[in-house]
């Protein structure tokens, strides 16, 4: 008799673990999907990670995956479930982007979703985001408050907070995410996940490859570095082979900085985690120096221009722009008031910042390490139904470490490393020169192994 499946063991196995189980015949994709749907039914009412659960379609796709495997299909991700952030097209669904606008039903998949399906993955649902991905907490008037599985009184970060909550709680092994000023990395840090913002343009972004005038990137939230590598290998063309290159490499030279790009006081728990990470790097044989990036007010100002103009563009594309929150409409008005020439300046300033960093930082070191988020997660619901003036002070400082790397398009990833005194995850950010994803993934895998982080689970079961 076959032993019954251990639900938590399967749910928290991640992409790589579930792939191995499917390949070994320990379970079928149909069984895996049913197990995760039961968890979603039980846990999501308290988390609010999903806007739509595609149960019928997921069951149908899982059955097709099992048939394909029985006929000799050996794709590594065949039958593995994934969630999609509700800001890209999924066939038969509307992408509401966190708004109340009645958006049209999509006739075809976004290119990234199509690549995930081509790899054999099972799309199990669409995850929540704050309206138009504007905030570092995932809550809105139209779709409620999404909560952090590690502490449901806290936010999971944003804008990919629904994706992060779903992965952290073991509702899916991985989820699609996007990042305009930190929206992959901030939720990753808040929920104890791996979140890589790749070099700009490496992963298909959606219908607007220049979203937010070049600030936005696409990627994933996962439980492990190996999971992220597998997903990137599946969707980047040609496949980069990251999964085969995760073994430890040569010792590296690190620059470490705890200086935010905008005036923000870094929380003592965050500083303590960075100090622990420095000690760990040195123990692993890496060289560490203290060096601050050449931040300037102009970098933050240039990001603000692209953010505001991007918001105005996004609002103008909605079927019903009036079905947005008042603070969103204020931001859109501000964006429309900016001259087109300001975007040209903002892009140029981002490029100049990147050139400075390459010369002054990556000309001397291999990797820059910073905190991912200088502050701890805000209370859940803290920005729900607030106006703009009460939202900005709590949200803007959270992108102080992540936003600059959107300005220049460099790869940056958050890796879980430590916790607060009461057990909330804290991530560290690793930044590299353009095209250095392979190096960042190898380094992150080494740190992950050293800390044993993937064995930790939030108190949801």
Q: Supply the helix-strand structural class.
A: alpha+beta
Mean pLDDT: 97
Say what the CATH topology is: Amidase signature (AS) enzymes
Biggest beta sheet summary? 8 strands, mixed
CATH structural class: Alpha Beta
Please estimate the helix content.
40-55%
Number of strands: 13
The order of strands across the largest sheet is: 6-8-7-12-13-11-9-10
What descriptive keywords fit this protein?
alpha+beta; 461 residues; single chain
Structural summary, described in words:
The structure is a single chain. By secondary structure, the chain is an alpha+beta fold. The chain has a single domain, classed as Amidase signature (AS) domain (Amidase signature (AS) enzymes, Alpha-Beta Complex). It contains 16 helices and 13 strands. The chain has helices at 7-11, 14-24, 29-47, 55-70, 111-118, 161-168, 185-191, 211-214, 225-235, 268-283, 297-317, 326-337, 340-360, 388-395, 404-408, 437-451, and strands spanning 50-53, 81-85, 122-127, 139-140, 144-145, 174-179, 194-197, 217-222, 253-256, 287-290, 367-371, 412-419, 425-431. It has an 8-stranded mixed β-sheet with strand order 6-8-7-12-13-11-9-10, with helices on both faces. It has a 3-stranded mixed β-sheet with strand order 1-3-2. Strand 4 (139-140) and strand 5 (144-145) form a beta hairpin.
